[in-house]
């Protein structure tokens, strides 16, 4: 079902505590707080009103003042275990005041704007509640009925749903952003170090260096390894342009090695043949959220004394033989682009290593090659992560482990739903190696009739994407006929990605799979 | 997992036979008070907290426990109307801001 939000008015809460009028209904309503799609809120501006009115009401019921002083804070604390606080923002108070006929109520209504258009209502006993015409006002009884209404089948499914996640951590996001606004250290503020420590611990490596974006992460990693003009870097053509682009930007040559058709990752069996005297590094990409075969790749690299950079832009959170992506090779690199499994609200990236020297060098490169203020022993770039993005990522990290688990479950559910009905095998579902866990940055299928499927899904309100329609060896900027890349070239014409995020519902998945299967049946008629 | 380890001249010695999934990770160690010459400053808390846990709280039980001594006074009077609740608050505001 779609998320529903309930903003509680003071009268409903005090009735609950006094065990009067709508109290039994309100307790039934609040009992649903264990449902991850049901959210209860109290507005910041209403908190002082609640505190005073509750005290007043209890006293009028004959409770001694000292008892009231004790129980009201306890009741508020208990309430806040199931109810989150929505902020009243200063910037909109003047316009709310101008439009309101009841400013207190209107302030409450205006907070719903932060719920980004998700279904919401004010729960109140006040029949004339000033909603500003922006939100429904319902009695507890009506709210309970609304909550129990069956959701209509989804009409439009987002490819990625960032709003669902934002709702869960909004107070934490607001706190972390406000903390940065208050201390004002927008560049290399304290959140950067906190994030780096948390990320290094998560990956299980000694060093994390946050950077401005995933592309710069690759650039910095290669700069730290002194890769430059005339050098060769072995990589996959079946990836986003950034991987090959950064190699070329440094004047080096991307040497493309074809992929394993099951995992879409570089085929280790083909790497050795591509190694020359000019090879300076191997840069596998852990595509779609599944790690490449690092034992095999690292073994080849060790034989030739080559460093390995994992482009883990899509795989942060995935594991390979129990170890975390980005902690599997000389350097791990990732991206925090908003749609990634761990995404910022803008660009961001990070580098990971156990090598003290490389960590120092990469750290300096991201700061204009600076080792101390205005002293630059090497050429670097402006590659720092913004403090604000670090603050946002710290908030998002609190949800990340459960989101990783949800992604794995949703990916497996897609595969099960498709395969149990897809008896003609015209659709190929993702193959995940037994030793891997995938974060399904993309849930990507293969089909020979991609355009037809895409068109039909679009008509059914289901967005899709193609990752990636042109392999890097066919991109005008990197065009080459030097390598045999038949698998990459063939798969680039067949892959199609479905909506994928950790809050995708089973009902939505069934709807999507039904649309896919209908499309296949139509195509085969 | 809690294991016995030994500190000796800057190094922590772990028992033999343990293998670890990661090459680098942080551990917490318990240092006997009597072995310390000086205490480490309390580390600053990291600016993150887990998302609010709505799964475990049984609100009704908590409320009942808080209100248990006052059952006789609750749920038996005439309910306040929303207007009466508003009046309580507005009266408070008047006393606070106008009757000074």
The assembly state of the depicted protein chains is: heterodimer
Structural Rg of chain B: 28 Å
Instruction: Profile the largest sheet of chain B.
Output: 2 strands, antiparallel
Distance between the termini of chain B: 63 Å
Going across the major beta sheet of chain A, what is the strand order? 3-2-1-4-5
Structural class category of chain B: mainly alpha
The overall average pLDDT of chain B, rounded, is 74
CATH superfamily of the largest domain in chain A: Type I PLP-dependent aspartate aminotransferase-like (Major domain)
Q: Which shape of chain A, going by the Cα principal axes? A: globular
The SS-based structural class of chain A is alpha/beta
Helix run count of chain B: 2
Mean pLDDT of chain A: 95
Strand order of the largest sheet of chain B: 1-2
In which range does the helix fraction of chain B lie?
25-40%
CATH C-level of the largest domain in chain A? Alpha Beta
Counted up, domains of chain A total 3
Label the CATH architecture of the largest domain in chain A: 3-Layer(aba) Sandwich
Given as residue ranges, the uncertain stretches of chain B (5+ residues, pLDDT < 50) are: 41-57
User: Largest interface, and how many residues on either side?
Assistant: A-B, 68 and 38 residues
Shape of chain B: elongated
Low-confidence stretches of chain A: none
């Amino acid at each position: 079902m779609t998320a529903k939000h309930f903003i509680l008015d003071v009268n409903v809460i005090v009735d609950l505590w006094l065990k009067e009028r709508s109290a039994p209904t309100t307790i039934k309503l609040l009992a649903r707080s264990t449902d991850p799609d049901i959210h209860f809120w109290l507005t910041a501006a209403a908190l002082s009103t609640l505190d005073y009115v509750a005290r007043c009401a209890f006293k009028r019921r004959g409770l001694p003042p000292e008892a009231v002083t004790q129980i009201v804070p306890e009741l508020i604390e208990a309430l806040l275990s199931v109810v989150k606080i929505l902020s009243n923002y200063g910037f909109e108070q003047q316009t709310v005041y101008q439009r309101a006929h009841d400013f207190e109520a209107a302030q409450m209504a205006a907070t719903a704007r932060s719920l980004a258009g998700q279904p919401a209502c004010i729960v109140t006993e006040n029949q004339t509640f000033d909603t500003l015409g922006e939100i429904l006002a319902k009695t507890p009884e009506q709210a309970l009925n609304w909550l129990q209404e069956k959701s209509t089948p989804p009409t439009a499914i987002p490819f990625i749903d960032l709003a669902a996640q934002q709702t869960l951590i909004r107070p934490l996001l607001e706190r972390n952003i406000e903390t940065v606004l208050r201390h004002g250290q927008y560049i290399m503020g304290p959140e950067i170090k906190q994030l780096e420590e948390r990320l290094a611990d998560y990956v299980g490596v000694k060093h994390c260096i946050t950077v401005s974006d995933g592309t710069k992460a690759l650039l910095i990693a290669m700069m730290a390894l002194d890769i430059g003009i005339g050098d060769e870097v072995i990589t996959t053509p079946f990836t986003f342009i950034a991987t090959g682009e950064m190699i070329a930007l440094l004047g080096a040559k991307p040497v493309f090695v074809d992929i394993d058709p099951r995992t879409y990752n570089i085929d280790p069996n083909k790497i050795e043949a591509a190694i020359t005297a000019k090879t300076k590094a191997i840069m596998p990409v852990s595509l779609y959220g599944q790690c490449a075969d690092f034992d095999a790749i690292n073994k080849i690299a060790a034989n030739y004394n080559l460093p390995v950079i994992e482009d883990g832009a899509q795989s942060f959170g995935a594991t390979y033989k129990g170890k975390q992506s980005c902690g599997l090779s000389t350097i791990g690199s990732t991206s925090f682009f908003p749609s990634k499994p761990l995404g910022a609200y803008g660009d961001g990236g990070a580098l990971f290593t156990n090598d003290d020297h490389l960590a120092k060098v990469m750290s300096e490169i991201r700061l204009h090659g600076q080792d101390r203020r205005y002293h630059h022993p090497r050429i670097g770039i402006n590659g720092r992560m913004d403090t604000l993005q670090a603050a946002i990522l710290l908030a998002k990290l609190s949800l990340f482990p459960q989101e990783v688990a949800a992604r794995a479950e949703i990916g497996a559910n897609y595969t099960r739903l498709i395969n149990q009905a897809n008896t003609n095998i015209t659709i190929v579902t993702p193959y995940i190696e037994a030793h891997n866990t995938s974060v399904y940055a993309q849930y990507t299928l293969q089909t020979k009739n991609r355009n037809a499927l895409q068109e039909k899904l679009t008509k059914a309100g289901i967005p899709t994407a193609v990752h990636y329609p042109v392999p890097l060896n066919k991109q005008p900027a990197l065009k080459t006929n030097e390598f045999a890349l038949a698998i990459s070239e063939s798969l680039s014409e067949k892959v199609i990605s479905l909506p994928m995020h950790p809050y995708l519902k089973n009902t939505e998945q069934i709807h999507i799979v039904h649309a896919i299967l209908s499309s296949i049946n139509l195509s085969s008629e | 997992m809690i294991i016995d380890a030994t500190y000796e001249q800057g190094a922590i010695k772990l028992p033999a036979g343990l293998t670890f999934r990661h090459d680098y990770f942080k551990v917490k160690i318990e240092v006997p008070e009597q072995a310390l010459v000086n205490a480490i400053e309390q580390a600053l808390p990291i600016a993150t907290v887990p998302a609010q846990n709505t799964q475990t709280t049984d609100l009704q039980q908590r409320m009942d426990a808080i209100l248990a001594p006052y059952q006789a006074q609750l749920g038996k009077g005439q309910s306040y109307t929303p207007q009466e609740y508003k009046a309580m608050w507005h009266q408070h505001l008047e006393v606070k801001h106008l009757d000074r």
